[in-house]
Write a structure and sequence with these properties.
Shape of chain A: globular
Largest sheet of chain A: none
CATH architecture of chain A: Orthogonal Bundle
Distance between the termini of chain A: 5 Å
Largest interface: A-B, 56 and 64 residues
CATH superfamily of chain A: MetI-like
Number of helices of chain A: 12
Structural class of chain A: mainly alpha
Number of domains of chain A: 1
Largest sheet of chain C: 8 strands, mixed
Chains: A mainly alpha, B alpha+beta, C alpha/beta, D alpha/beta
Number of helices of chain C: 12
Order of helices and strands of chain C: EEEHEEHEHHHHEHEHEEHHHEEEHE
Strand order of the largest sheet of chain C: 6-7-8-3-9-10-13-12
Number of strands of chain A: 0
Structural class of chain C: alpha/beta
Order of helices and strands of chain A: HHHHHHHHHHHH
Oligomer: heterotetramer
Helix content of chain C: 25-40%
CATH class of chain A: Mainly Alpha
Chain lengths: 345, 571, 355, 337
C-alpha cells in the first residue's frame, strides 16, 4: 500500500507539471487583457507601461519558468519561515528567513502574494462550503439508504423528486429565492456573509450560524441530491446480492441486515465519491459564494478571471489540480482500506 | 465656474436635502458607530496609482487625499491647501508653465507625522518612475519638475504652457502618498510593497485596520484627522462582491448596508427595490455619454487587414444627410426610459458637462422618421432595386454593420435602433463582442473597438476631471489608430479635419476659463455635426443609501465617497 | 491399442505453448513473477476430429484455447494452423487468417451484443471479411440460421428474446459464418440446463459432420467431453498431464490425476455410486503463480513419490497415441502402468479411497 | 432410510407467484412434500423449475414484493411458518433451519471476516458471549475440515479457496444445530474434485449430526450419490417423488425418464448420440390448467392439454404426476387445483 502510494505520488509529478503548463498556455492564449478593467480614461501608453510593469513584456516560457520557481521553491520557503516564526507548532525553532529577498507569486490585480489571498479566503470557504458538504452528506446517506430499502415507495418517490429539484435548480436561482424569502420577506437571516465576523461567545456564534444557514442550505441541497442518488444506487446494488440473503437466512433482523451487512458494502463506492468531492470544497462554490457574498476561493477565482489576473488564476487552478490528484489518490487508497478484497502493492 | 444646479436631477435633489442638515449635525468623533458600505465590485488594492479601477480609487479616497478635488458641481475645491492657485491670485504663472500650491499648515498623517511638501514631491517621483507602471501616469505627463522650496510649498513646473494645470495632485485618482511609507516602493519594487499597497497611511478621515483584497476593508476613524468632531463614524465596514442587484437589495430592501455604489440596474428593478423602504437611490450626472461612433474609413472585409478601416473613405457615412438622418431616426427619450431610467438623460453632445463646456446649440429629443427619409431621398439615396434597402448614387447598398460590447442594455438599444434605421431604408446587421475583448486593446484581435471593423459601433466614454481638452483631442487627425501605431490612438472614428485640429491647438493655448468654454463648445459641435458620432444618452450614476445615513452628496467628478468625513447617522 | 484415426494429417500443431501473465510489484512495477496460466503445452489436432480439453477451473484450459487462436500474444511456443505458423505473427497480419479459425464462447448472454439483432450479429463477420452483396449476406444468414436450428423469422429479434440454448445457437451460427475449418469451443454448454446441453452438443456434432469441422472442445464436464471428443487432453495447473484417445482414457486413465478426476464425477446411478471405489483428492489446486517444485500434481497426488517433489516429469508418449507426464511411467513404454507402477504408499498421505 | 422417522417439515399446497411488469409468473404451483427427521431429500430440476423458489418460500426469504405466497402451509414442529410473525421466522432461520447457497463467493459478505459472520448467528440465536461464540466458531470450522481454524477466523472470504468458502458456509448453516439444513445447489459452482470433497463432508456431517437435509441440485449424478429420496420438479410443480434407487431404476414420469437419458456418463457404454428433450421449458405466465410437460412429451395425448394431472401413487413412496400413472391412487393432499 505504501509503495503504491509512493508510486502514485511520483507519477503525479509529471502529470501536475503538464497540467500547470496546459493551464498556463490556456490562460496565455485566451483573449483578454489585464488592463481591460482600467477605465477608458487612462491613455493607452500608460496602460502599456502598466503591462510592462507586470512583466508581460517577457516571453511566455520565461514567465512560466518564473512561476514554477516561485510556486515550487519560493512559496515553500515562505511557508517554512512562517512555521518557524509564528506558528504554534514550530514557533520554538529559531526563526528562519529563507525567503528573504525572493519574489513571491504576486497577483496582478491586488499586487499582493497570491498564497496570502488563498490563506485569507480558505476559512470562509471551508466553513461554508465544507459545512454544507458535511450537512449534505449527513442528510444524503439516510435518505439514500431508506430510498433504496423502500424502493418505489412514497418516500423514495419524494426523494427522487427532491433530488431532481436539487439537480436541476441552479444555485443562482435557489440562492436568490431563499434570500428573497428569508432575508427580504421574513427578515430572519442576513443575505450578505460577513467574512470578518469572529466567533468569541455564544451570541457571536449564533450570528455565525445565522449567516451560514442560507448558503449552506443552498449548497447542501445539491450535495444531498447527488449523494443520496448515489447512495441509493449503491444500496440497491448490494440489496440484491447473495450475501444479503445469507444474512437473512441466518435470522438477522432487517436492521442488522441493512445497516451492518449492506451498508458496509454500499459505503465503499460512496466513501470514495465523497472523498473525490472534497477538492470541490477547497475550490469553493463559485456561484453560491457570489450570491451570498461569501468571498471565498470560488469568488476569488471568478473575480480574478474577470480581471485577467493570470498569476492568481494560474495558481488557484493549479492548486485545485493538485487537490484533485491528491484526493483521487486518497479515494483509491480508501477503497483499498475499506474493501478487504483489494490489495495494492 | 458656476454651480451646475441644472445638473441636479429630481433624485439628486433628494440627496442634497440631508446635506443641508449636515451643518447642524455635530458632535464627537466616532459618535455614530459603524457605517457599512457595499461596493459590488470589491476593491483589490488601496493604492490608486497601481490600479485604474474606480472601486480601488474610491475605496482609497477614504484614506488618501489630494491637494484639491472637485465638488458635486464640478468645481475645484481646496482640500489640503488653503486656496486654489489661479493666475489671478498668482498661484499660476502668467506663462501658464508653473503652479504653486500652499499646503494648509498643521495637517498630519494618520500616524501623527506632519504632512509636508516632500510627500507631494515624492508622489510625483513615485508615479513617474519608468518601471512603476503607474496608472495615473497621464496626469504627470507634462510635468517637468516638482520642487519644494519649503515644507508647505509645492511648485509644479510644466514642460510648456498648460492652461489646465490642475491635473497632478487633484482629484481622487491622484492623491498624496506618504514619502516615508513608500520610500522603498519605487519603480519595479512597487508591486512587492504589499503592506503599503494594502494599508497606505493617509490624511483622510479613516485608517485601514484590515484589508482583504476583493473582499472587505475594515477601517477606524483617523484619530489625527484635521477636523474636530469628524468623522462621525467610528468604524467602516467596506464590503465588496456580489452584483448590483444584491447590493441594491442589501441597502433598500434588507437594510443590511448603509450605502451601495453604482447600481447599474434596469430602471424598473430600482423602482421596485425602493419599495423596500429601507433606503433611497441617488443619481448624479457626469460626462459619460453612450454614443454611436461612425466609421470614417471603409471597413469592408474584402480589403486587407492593413487597408480595412485605414484608407479610403466610407462609401456613404461621411455625408451629413446620411448621419443626420440616422440621428433623426432615433427616439432618444425612449432609449433613456428603457435603458437607464433616472440614471440617464438625452444628450446631443459629445461633452455634456460641466455646464461651461456643454453646448446648447443642438436639439435631438424628438424622433422624425419621415424627415429622415425625406433627407435621404433628397440627397439621392433611393432604393433603386426595390429590395427595401437604399443605394448610394454610386449604387452601393446602404448596409450597416453595427457592433458593440455584450451588455443587456446595449443589445436592447441595438435592436431598437436597427428597427428604426431599417425603417428609413438601411440594412442593419448586429454584432456584439465580449467586453474584455472589445475594450481589451489586443492588437492581434480583429474585434477591438480600436480596429473598428464595422460601420458603426456603440459604447460609452467620458473624461476624468472637469477639463475636456485632452478628451476633445481624441478627434485630432494625429490620433488615428492604424497598423503603424499598433492600433493605438484615441481617434477611433478616424474623423479628421484641419479646421478642428487648428481650433484644438487654440484651446491648448488658452487659459481664460470663459474663452476655453467657448472653444470647447465649438469643437464639440464641429465633431458631432461633422459626423464623428451620434450621441445618445448622458449616463449618470445611481447609488443608494439607507434612510438613516445623512450627508451623502453624490459626486461624479471625484470619488463618491469624497465627503465621507461629513457622513452621519440621522436617527 | 492403436490410435483410432492416425492417418489424417494434423490441422493444428501446437508445440511448447506458454502463456505467462506477468506479476509486477514495487515502486517501479518490476516484474517479480508470472502467472503461468499455460506452461509448455504441445498437442496436434487432426482434421475433422475433436480434441477435448478437460480440467478444473484455473488449470489454464480456456487460456490455452484463446492462445491457440492468438487472442493473446503468446509467451513462447509455436502454433501451426493449416500449415501456417501463427505463433509469432503480428496481430494485424492475423486478420486474414481469422476466417479459418473461430470461437464459441461460454456465456452466450455476455458474448452477444444486446443492441444488435440476430441478423446483424451473424452477419458481422461477413461484413468484416467478405465482399458479399446485401442480398447474399441475408441469404447466408438465413442458411446459417437453418443450419443451427433457429427459425428464420426471428432474424430481426434481439438476443434477450431468446433462451440460453438459442443464444448459444446464435453464437455458433456467427462462428460458422466464414466457413471456418477450426473452431475453439470454450465451455459452450457450461451455462446451459441439462436438457439443453444435449441439444447443443448434438448440434455441434451434426455441424462437424456436415462442414468437416475440427473442434477444440474445452469443458470441465468429463461426461460431455467423453461424448463429443475423439481424443482428450487433461490439463492440470497449466500443463497437459495426459492426452489419449477417448475410449482408452475413460477405460483406463494413466495419470493419477485423470484417475482421480474421473472418479470424482458423480454417476447418475445410485447402484454404481454405492459400489464404485472413489478417490477423493484433498486440498486445493496450487496457485499458478507459485506452482510446486517438481511435478505440479505432487501436492495432491495419491501416488506421490520422492522424485515427484524434485523433478518435473516429461510429457511422453508412453503407449501408442497416449501421452502422459508422470514418473510412474519412467520405465519402458510397453509396460502396463496399472500393474507396474510403483507401489502406492498410503500411510502418511491424506488422500482417501472411499466406498 | 427409516420410514418410521417423524416428519419435521410438512409443506402443503404451496403456491408462489411473482408479479412482474409483464404479468404474473406462477413459479411454484401447489407443491406438497414432507421431510422426515434425518433423511436427505434431493430436489432435482432445471433452472426455472421452481426448486429454489419453493425452498426460499418456506422461510419467507423471497423479496416480497415482487414475490407473493398465494396459499399453503409450512409446518415446522407443528408451527405454520407462513402465518408466523417476523420474530418467530427470524428465530427459525439460522436456528432450526440452516441454509447453504450455491455460490460461496457471493453468499458470504466480502467485507466482514469469516469469524464475524460465523459468530453472528451464535450470538443471536444462542445468546453466546463473544468469547464463547469465538470458541464455538473454531469448533465449527474444525468440524467442516478447515485447518488452522482459530487463525483463519479473522480472514476474509476472498482469502479462502472456493471449496473452503463453501465449508465456511456450511459451518455457518450448522452453527445453531439446525433440525433442517437446506442446501441450494451447494456444489454447482465447484470443481468436480472439490465437489467430491464437499459431498463426502456432507455425508459425514449428516451421519454425525443427524439433521434432515433438503439438497437442491440439477445434477442427477449428485442426487444419485447423496439422496435418500428425490423430488423431481418441472414447471413449478413436483412431477415425481420416489426413493432414490426406485427413481433411477424405474422413472414413471416421462420428464424424469427423458432427463435420465440425456445425461452422458463417464463409465459404461457410451451413447452414439445423446438423447435430447426437444423444445423449451414452459413459461409460467398463467395458472396451469394443463400438464406443463405436454409440449415436450413423447406420450402426450389430448387429455394432457385439458387437464393438469394429479400426483398418482405408483409404488411405495413413489408417485408421479402423469396420466400414464393414473392407475395408482391420487396422493391424498397433492391434487392439483
Amino acid at each position: 500500500m505504501l509503495t503504491y502510494a509512493i508510486r502514485r505520488l511520483l507519477l503525479s509529478i509529471p502529470t501536475l507539471l503538464f497540467i500547470a503548463l496546459v493551464i498556463f498556455l490556456l490562460l496565455e492564449l485566451a483573449p483578454g487583457d489585464p488592463m481591460a478593467q482600467v477605465p477608458l480614461t487612462v491613455p493607452d501608453e500608460v496602460k502599456a507601461r502598466m503591462r510592462e510593469a507586470l512583466g508581460l513584456g517577457r516571453p511566455w516560457p520565461v514567465r512560466f519558468g518564473l512561476w514554477l520557481y516561485q510556486f515550487f521553491w519560493v512559496e515553500p520557503m515562505v511557508f517554512l519561515d512562517w512555521l518557524t516564526n509564528s506558528s504554534f507548532l514550530f514557533g520554538w525553532l529559531p526563526d528562519t528567513s529563507f525567503s528573504a529577498g525572493m519574489d513571491r507569486v504576486i497577483s496582478w490585480q491586488t499586487r499582493g502574494p497570491v498564497m496570502d489571498l488563498v490563506v485569507q479566503r480558505l476559512p470562509q470557504t471551508l466553513w461554508v462550503v465544507g459545512m454544507s458538504y458535511v450537512v449534505g452528506v449527513l442528510i444524503a446517506l439516510p435518505i439514500g439508504i431508506l430510498s433504496a430499502y423502500r424502493q418505489y415507495s412514497v418516500f423514495d418517490n419524494v426523494g427522487t423528486f427532491v433530488s431532481m429539484v436539487g439537480y436541476s435548480i441552479p444555485p443562482f436561482f435557489s440562492g436568490v429565492l431563499v434570500i428573497v424569502i428569508f432575508s427580504v420577506q421574513l427578515g430572519w437571516l442576513p443575505s450578505i456573509y460577513d467574512t470578518t465576523h469572529v466567533v468569541t461567545d455564544w451570541a457571536s456564534f449564533k450570528v455565525q450560524v445565522q449567516q451560514m444557514i442560507l448558503p449552506v442550505m443552498v449548497l447542501a441541497l445539491q450535495t444531498t441530491a447527488q449523494l443520496s442518488r448515489f447512495m441509493r444506487a449503491s444500496m440497491l446494488d448490494n440489496l440484491g446480492q447473495d450475501y444479503v440473503r445469507t444474512a437473512r437466512a441466518k435470522g438477522m433482523t432487517e436492521w442488522v441486515v441493512v445497516l451492518t451487512h449492506v451498508l458496509r458494502n454500499s459505503m465503499i463506492p460512496v466513501v470514495t465519491v465523497i472523498a473525490l468531492g472534497i477538492p470541490a470544497i477547497f475550490g469553493g462554490a463559485i456561484i453560491t459564494e457570489q450570491v451570498f457574498k461569501v468571498n471565498g476561493i470560488g469568488q476569488l477565482l471568478i473575480t480574478q478571471i474577470q480581471a485577467n489576473d493570470l498569476p492568481t488564476v494560474q495558481t488557484l487552478t493549479f492548486i485545485f489540480a493538485v487537490l484533485i490528484v491528491m484526493f483521487n489518490l486518497i479515494a483509491d487508497l480508501l477503497y483499498g482500506i475499506l474493501d478487504p478484497r483489494i490489495r495494492y502493492d | 465656474m458656476k454651480l451646475r444646479t441644472a445638473l441636479l436631477g429630481a433624485i439628486a435633489a433628494v440627496a442634497t436635502a440631508p446635506m443641508v442638515h449636515a451643518e447642524a449635525h455635530e458632535g464627537e468623533r466616532g459618535r455614530d458607530g459603524e457605517v457599512r458600505i457595499l461596493y459590488w465590485q470589491a476593491p483589490s488594492i488601496l493604492n490608486p496609482f497601481l490600479s485604474g479601477g474606480t472601486k480601488d480609487v474610491e475605496a482609497s479616497s477614504m484614506i488618501l487625499e489630494p491637494l484639491a478635488r472637485y465638488n458635486p458641481s464640478g468645481e475645484l475645491v481646496p482640500w489640503l491647501v488653503d486656496e486654489i492657485p489661479t493666475v489671478a491670485n498668482g498661484g499660476v504663472s502668467e506663462d501658464l508653465t508653473q503652479i504653486t500650491w500652499k499646503i494648509t499648515p498643521g495637517i498630519t498623517w494618520s500616524d501623527g507625522t506632519p504632512f509636508t511638501s516632500e510627500d507631494v514631491r515624492f508622489t510625483w517621483e513615485y508615479c513617474t518612475h519608468p518601471e512603476g507602471g503607474c496608472a495615473q501616469g497621464a496626469k504627470f505627463e507634462r510635468v517637468a519638475s516638482v520642487e519644494t522650496p519649503d515644507e508647505q510649498t509645492v511648485v509644479v513646473t510644466y514642460e510648456g504652457p498648460t492652461p489646465n494645470p490642475y491635473l497632478p495632485f487633484v482629484g481622487a485618482e491622484s492623491p498624496i502618498l506618504q514619502a516615508a511609507q513608500f520610500a522603498e516602493c519605487l519603480g519595479a519594487a512597487a508591486s512587492t510593497c504589499t503592506e503599503q499597497n494594502y494599508n497606505p497611511i493617509g490624511t483622510g478621515p479613516f485608517v485601514v485596520t484590515d484589508f482583504r483584497p476583493n473582499d472587505v476593508i475594515q477601517m477606524e476613524a483617523n484619530e489625527n484627522y484635521r477636523e474636530e468632531g469628524k468623522p462621525a463614524f467610528q468604524s467602516v465596514t467596506f464590503k465588496g462582491g456580489g452584483d448590483a442587484a444584491a447590493a441594491g437589495r442589501a441597502v433598500m430592501e434588507t437594510g443590511e448596508f448603509d450605502y451601495a455604489w453604482n447600481l447599474q440596474l434596469a430602471p424598473e428593478v430600482i423602482a421596485q427595490m425602493e419599495q423596500g423602504g429601507q433606503g433611497v437611490p441617488v443619481a448624479g450626472f457626469g460626462t459619460l455619454v453612450e454614443r454611436i461612433m461612425l466609421n470614417h474609413t471603409n471597413p469592408d472585409p474584402n480589403l486587407g487587414p492593413d487597408e480595412r478601416s485605414v484608407v479610403g473613405p466610407h462609401p456613404f457615412l461621411q455625408d451629413p444627410a446620411v448621419y443626420n438622418a440616422m440621428s433623426m431616426a432615433i427616439d432618444r427619450p425612449l432609449l433613456v426610459e428603457i435603458g437607464y431610467g433616472p440614471a440617464g438623460r438625452v444628450t446631443c453632445n459629445w461633452v455634456p458637462a460641466p455646464e461651461i463646456y456643454a453646448s446648447t446649440s443642438m436639439t435631438c429629443d424628438t424622433q422624425d422618421l419621415e424627415g429622415a427619409k425625406a433627407m435621404l431621398e433628397e440627397a439621392g439615396y433611393v432604393d433603386t432595386d426595390g429590395d427595401g434597402v437604399r443605394e448610394t448614387p454610386d449604387g452601393v447598398p446602404m448596409n450597416l454593420l453595427y457592433q458593440t460590447s455584450t451588455n443587456a442594455v446595449r443589445q436592447d438599444f441595438q435592436a431598437l435602433i436597427k428597427e428604426w434605421w431599417e425603417e428609413i431604408g438601411f440594412s442593419v446587421e448586429l454584432r456584439n463582442i465580449d467586453s474584455s475583448v472589445f475594450f481589451g486593446g489586443d492588437a492581434g484581435s480583429p474585434d477591438t473597438f480600436q480596429k473598428f471593423y464595422a460601420d458603426v459601433q456603440m459604447y460609452a466614454n467620458n473624461f476624468p476631471g472637469t477639463d475636456p481638452q485632452a478628451y476633445l483631442g481624441n478627434g485630432l487627425c494625429g490620433n488615428i489608430p492604424s497598423p503603424a501605431t499598433q492600433w493605438q490612438g484615441e481617434n477611433i472614428t478616424r474623423f479628421c479635419s484641419e479646421e478642428y485640429d487648428a481650433l484644438w491647438a487654440e484651446l491648448a493655448q488658452t487659459a481664460d476659463i470663459e474663452e476655453r468654454g467657448r472653444i470647447a463648445r465649438e469643437l464639440n459641435d464641429m465633431a458631432v455635426q461633422g459626423g464623428m458620432m451620434i450621441p445618445l444618452v448622458d449616463r449618470g450614476r445611481i447609488s443608494a443609501h439607507s434612510n438613516s445615513l445623512g450627508g451623502v452628496d453624490l459626486n461624479t467628478w471625484d470619488s463618491e465617497l469624497w465627503n465621507v468625513a461629513d457622513w452621519y447617522r440621522t436617527e | 491399442m492403436l490410435d483410432a484415426a492416425p492417418a489424417k494429417k494434423p490441422l493444428v500443431e501446437v508445440r511448447g505453448l506458454k502463456m505467462h501473465f506477468p506479476i509486477t510489484a514495487g515502486l517501479f512495477r518490476r516484474q517479480v513473477g508470472a502467472v503461468k496460466a499455460v506452461d509448455g503445452v504441445s498437442f496436434d489436432i487432426h482434421e475433422g476430429e475433436t480434441l477435448g480439453v478437460v480440467g478444473e477451473s484455473g488449470c489454464g484450459k480456456s487460456t490455452c484455447g484463446r492462445a491457440v487462436l492468438r487472442l493473446y500474444d503468446i509467451t513462447e511456443g509455436t502454433i501451426r494452423i493449416d500449415g501456417r505458423d501463427i505463433g509469432q505473427v503480428p496481430q494485424a497480419s492475423l486478420r486474414q487468417m481469422r476466417p479459418t479459425m473461430q470461437m464459441v464462447f461460454q456465456d452466450p448472454q455476455a458474448s452477444l451484443n444486446p443492441r444488435m439483432t440476430v441478423q446483424s450479429i451473424i452477419q458481422e463477420p461477413l461484413d468484416e471479411h467478405t465482399k458479399m452483396s446485401k442480398a447474399e449476406k441475408r441469404e447466408k444468414v438465413f442458411q446459417l440460421m437453418d443450419a443451427v436450428g433457429l427459425n428464420r423469422r426471428f432474424a430481426g429479434r434481439y438476443p434477450h428474446a431468446f433462451s440460453g440454448g438459442q443464444r448459444q445457437r446464435i453464437g455458433i451460427a456467427r462462428a460458422l459464418a466464414l466457413n471456418p475449418k477450426f473452431i475453439v469451443c470454450d465451455e459452450p454448454i457450461a451455462a446451459l440446463d441439462v436438457s439443453i446441453q444435449a441439444q447443443v452438443v448434438n448440434l455441434l456434432e451434426d455441424l462437424q459432420k456436415e462442414f468437416g469441422l475440427t473442434y477444440l472442445f474445452i469443458s470441465h464436464d468429463l461426461s460431455m467431453v467423453r461424448h463429443i471428443a475423439t481424443r482428450v487432453a487433461v490439463m492440470y495447473l497449466g500443463k497437459i498431464v495426459e492426452l489419449s484417445p477417448r475410449e482408452a482414457l475413460y477405460a483406463e486413465p494413466l495419470h493419477p490425476y485423470t484417475e482421480a478426476l474421473l472418479s470424482a464425477v458423480p454417476e447418475p446411478d445410485p447402484v454404481l455410486h454405492d459400489t464404485a471405489e472413489r478417490i477423493i483428492l484433498t486440498g486445493d489446486v496450487p496457485s499458478p503463480a507459485n506452482p510446486p517444485k517438481g511435478c505440479n500434481f505432487c501436492t495432491r497426488c495419491p501416488r506421490v513419490m520422492d522424485i515427484c517433489r524434485d523433478i518435473d516429469p516429461d510429457y511422453r508418449e508412453v503407449r501408442p497415441g497416449r501421452y502422459v507426464a508422470c514418473h510412474l511411467y519412467n520405465e519402458t513404454q510397453d509396460q502396463t502402468a496399472g500393474t507396474t507402477a510403483a507401489p502406492v504408499e498410503e500411510q502418511e498421505h491424506p488422500t482417501r479411497r472411499v466406498k | 432410510m427409516a420410514e418410521t422417522a417423524p416428519t419435521v417439515l410438512d409443506v402443503r399446497d404451496l403456491k408462489t407467484v411473482f408479479r412482474t411488469r409483464s404479468g404474473e409468473v406462477h413459479a411454484v404451483n401447489s407443491v406438497s412434500f414432507d421431510l422426515k427427521a434425518g433423511e436427505l431429500l434431493g430436489v432435482v430440476g432445471e433452472s426455472g423449475s421452481g426448486k429454489s423458489v419453493t425452498m426460499m418460500s418456506l422461510l419467507g426469504l423471497l423479496p416480497m414484493p415482487p414475490a407473493e405466497i398465494r396459499s399453503g402451509e409450512v409446518l415446522l414442529d407443528g408451527v405454520d411458518l407462513l402465518k408466523a410473525d417476523a420474530r418467530t421466522l427470524r428465530a427459525v432461520r439460522g436456528g432450526k433451519v440452516g441454509f447453504v447457497f450455491q455460490d460461496p463467493m457471493t453468499s458470504l459478505n466480502p467485507t466482514f471476516s469469516v469469524g464475524f459472520q460465523l459468530r453472528e448467528p451464535l450470538r443471536k440465536h444462542m445468546g453466546m458471549s463473544k468469547k464463547a461464540a469465538n470458541d464455538r466458531a473454531v469448533e465449527l470450522l474444525e468440524l467442516v475440515g478447515i485447518p488452522d481454524a482459530r487463525e483463519r477466523l479473522k480472514d476474509y472470504p476472498h482469502q479462502f479457496s472456493g471449496g473452503m468458502r463453501q465449508r465456511v458456509m456450511i459451518a455457518i448453516a450448522l452453527a445453531c444445530d439446525p433440525k433442517v439444513l437446506i442446501a441450494d445447489e451447494p456444489t454447482t459452482a465447484l470443481d468436480v474434485t472439490i465437489q467430491a470433497q464437499i459431498l463426502e463432508l456432507m455425508a459425514d456431517l449428516q451421519s454425525r449430526l443427524g439433521m434432515a437435509v433438503i439438497w437442491i441440485t440439477h445434477d442427477l449424478g449428485v442426487i444419485a450419490g447423496i439422496a435418500d429420496r428425490v423430488l423431481v420438479m418441472y414447471g413449478g410443480q413436483i412431477v415425481e417423488q420416489a426413493p432414490v434407487r426406485e427413481l433411477f431404476a424405474n422413472p414413471r414420469h416421462p420428464y424424469t425418464a427423458a432427463l435420465l437419458k440425456t445425461v452422458p456418463k463417464v463409465s459404461g457404454e457410451r451413447e452414439a448420440r445423446l438423447t435430447i428433450i426437444e423444445g423449451q421449458p414452459p413459461m409460467l405466465t398463467a395458472h396451469p390448467t394443463a400438464c406443463p410437460f405436454r409440449d415436450r412429451c413423447a406420450h402426450a395425448f389430448d387429455r394432457c392439454e385439458r387437464e393438469n394431472p394429479a400426483r398418482y401413487t405408483v409404488g411405495d413412496g413413489h408417485d408421479a404426476a402423469c396420466f400414464k400413472a393414473e392407475s395408482g391412487d391420487v396422493m391424498p393432499e397433492a391434487a392439483h387445483a
